[in-house]
Specification:
six-stranded mixed sheet; globular; GK1-3_metazoan-type; transferase; glycerol kinase; binds SN-glycerol-3-phosphate; alpha+beta; 23 strands; binds adenosine-5'-diphosphate; kinase; seven-stranded mixed sheet; nucleotide-binding
Length: 573
């Protein structure tokens, strides 16, 4: 199909370029595409500093995000000159970002009032409990019919509520009407378009649909939800479509003057980049987490099996919203980092995970449930914690590494099973992307464990490509039809396991998941909070439940509370 206004470009003439800001959990990238040929011309990326001030807390520096964007843009644009292009050839920008991560800032000074609270941060556990206490039967799915999401620490409204409850500067800014909230796209755009000097406080429907505050039908902030979470409408950004010219960069840096015409949450962006624009198409992106999105067209499918209903995209102010069912997995690539950084089992993630895990033919019946901060879809259990089970004297690190790879595949199967139940129609193939997909062993295991072909994209970064297309269309320099001619999978992995084998292993995985549930109680671990001098214990020969005694305990702690007692090492001085 030939699209209207599809201007042929004469040979030798320069073609318009599209810049993409891709802010991920771990990295910031700037990518430049040549629209006509869907070609990635230049790219640069920088790692972010991860800050974990307490167990389960994940923070990012909002200033670092802006700094990295500008540095990456300079480097990528620098590469253009070697290719005979210049900055002026970059005609528009798209922004794709980690979703849910939340920032509060001062609209007059532009200063963040707290570090960004990451999507995977679970500090809001007790905030969740306080909100659940306000809804009938403490039902975590009570709001799903309005916003498509369960009440979980994952989503932005809980992080906003926590900031208001716990950070004085946020409360003061709120009282003095200086407070602005936003997901990372809002923070970036506000700063790029002028900050305190007239910066645009906007977001798109896909990011807004991850806050717990947007009504999926009206595509606007829902008054009842804002009231429930105590978030004032004036502190929230205006919700726009994913593809339109919002404004231009006005920050005196390298990107100055370029228009911004596309915004998509990074998982929705990968759905577009994978050309899953028809109802019934799905993709899975393997990054720090793993996110499977199933396009349901203009229908909002209500999941009864633990999936989210989310906005997939809205390709212009007058286009209808397209929705998706999403299965979100909190830890995928993150488990590989855990093996490298915490357990020191590997050094080089891509090389070692494939090579070392490939030295054994199976996990030796070892199962690894990486529920480091609870389990997301389809379980939504914040009380789950990671386990490695089935260890024997035969187990080696090879089995554990392989079990970590298989965990990604089993979690994907959990999502596919739920999608099948919700939609009635099983998927027959799975499009995949994300850095982890360069791992051939992982791809083969994935195909074996779900029993369907796995189609790997020609480039791992479909998130950047997706928003490039959307921004190009928004600025009228690219069209979906033209781009589709280039959208093909690079290779396909076919299942080699039998149905019996696949199902037996999946049954065992479900047993492992059961064992991970309920591990974290809501009770605070005082090993984390009490300081040592508060606890003077009598010298004892050995600690048992029978002979352990406190000399001094915090008020409210019962002497016979053995769960408390057993967390302590006695001070045998
Ligand atoms: N070839 C590979 N095999 C296994 N894991 C990988 C491979 N390449 C990257 N990973 C893991 O995938 C994740 C990649 O995430 P990345 O896309 O860089 O980050 P982000 O989550 O910020 O988007 C990292 O956590 C890394 O551990
Ligand atoms: O940056 P990623 O790839 O870890 O993506 C994070 C997701 O958007 C969280 O919902």
């Amino acid at each position: 199909m030939e699209d209207e206004g599809d201007m042929p470009v004469k040979d030798g003439a320069k073609r318009p370029l599209i810049g993409v800001i891709d802010d991920g959990t771990k990295t910031v990238r700037f990518v430049i595409y040549e629209a006509e040929r869907s070609e990635e011309l230049a790219a640069y990326q920088l790692d972010k500093t991860e800050v974990q001030p307490q167990e389960g807390w994940w923070e990012q520096d909002p200033h670092e995000i802006l700094h990295h964007i500008r540095m990456c843009a300079e480097q990528a644009i620098g590469q253009l000159t070697e290719l005979g292009y210049s900055k002026e050839d970059v005609v528009t920008l798209g922004i794709t970002n980690q979703r849910e991560t939340t920032i509060a800032w001062d609209k007059f000074t532009g200063e963040p009032l707290h570090p960004a609270i990451g999507w995977n941060d679970i500090r809001t556990d007790s905030t969740v409990d306080a909100i659940l206490a306000k809804v009938p039967d403490r039902n975590k799915n009570y709001l799903k019919s309005i916003c498509g999401l369960p009440i979980s620490p994952y989503f932005s409204a809980l992080k906003m509520r926590w900031l208001k409850d716990n950070v004085k500067a946020v409360r003061r800014a709120s009282r003095e009407k200086r407070l602005l909230f936003g997901t990372v796209d809002s923070w970036i755009i506000w700063n790029l378009t002028g900050g305190p000097q007239g910066g645009l406080h906007i977001t798109d429907v896909t990011n807004a649909s991850r806050t717990l505050l947007m009504n999926l039908e009206t595509l606007n902030w829902d008054p009842m939800l804002c009231r429930l979470f105590g978030i004032h409408r004036d502190t929230l950004p205006q919700i726009r479509s994913s593809s339109e010219v919002y404004g231009s960069v006005n920050d005196g840096t390298i990107l100055d003057g370029i228009s911004i015409s596309g915004i998509l949450g990074n998982q929705q962006s990968a759905l577009v980049g994978q050309n899953c624009l028809l109802a019934g198409q799905a993709k899975n992106t393997y990054r720090s987490g793993c996110f499977l999105l199933y396009n349901t067209g203009t229908r909002r499918v209500q999941s009864t099996h633990g999936l989210l209903t989310t906005v997939a995209y809205k390709l212009g102010p007058n286009s209808p919203a397209v929705y998706a069912l999403e299965g979100s997995i909190a830890v995928a690539g993150g488990a590989m980092k855990f093996l490298r950084d915490n357990l020191k089992l590997i050094k080089d993630i891509p090389k070692d995970t494939e090579h070392i895990a490939g030295q054994v033919f199976s996990t030796g019946d070892v199962y690894f449930v990486p529920a480091f901060s609870g389990l997301y879809a389809p379980y939504w259990r914040k009380d789950a914690r990671g386990i490695i089970c089935g260890l024997t004297s035969f187990t080696t690190k090879n089995h554990i590494i392989r079990a970590a790879l298989e965990a990604v595949c089993f979690q994907t199967r959990d999502i596919l099973e739920a999608m099948h139940k919700d939609c009635g129609m099983p998927l027959t193939k799975l499009h995949v992307d994300g850095k982890m997909t360069s791992n051939d062993l992982l791809m083969q295991l994935q195909s074996d464990l779900i029993g369907m072909p796995v189609l790997r994209a020609h480039s791992w970064d479909m998130s950047a490509l997706g928003v490039a297309v959307v921004a190009g269309a928004g600025a009228n320099v690219w069209s979906y039809e033209r781009w589709r001619r280039h959208a093909t999978a690079a290779d396909t992995f076919l299942p080699t396991a039998t149905d019996d084998d696949r199902d037996a292993r999946y049954t065992k995985w479900k047993m492992a998941v059961q064992r991970s549930l309920g591990w974290a109680t809501t009770k605070k671990s005082i090993t984390m909070t009490a300081s040592a001098p508060d606890l003077r214990l009598r010298r004892l020969p050995a600690v048992t439940e029978d002979n352990f005694e406190f000399c001094s305990v915090d008020e409210g702690q019962k002497k016979n509370d053995t769960s408390f007692l057993l967390r302590y090492q006695p001070l045998c001085t």
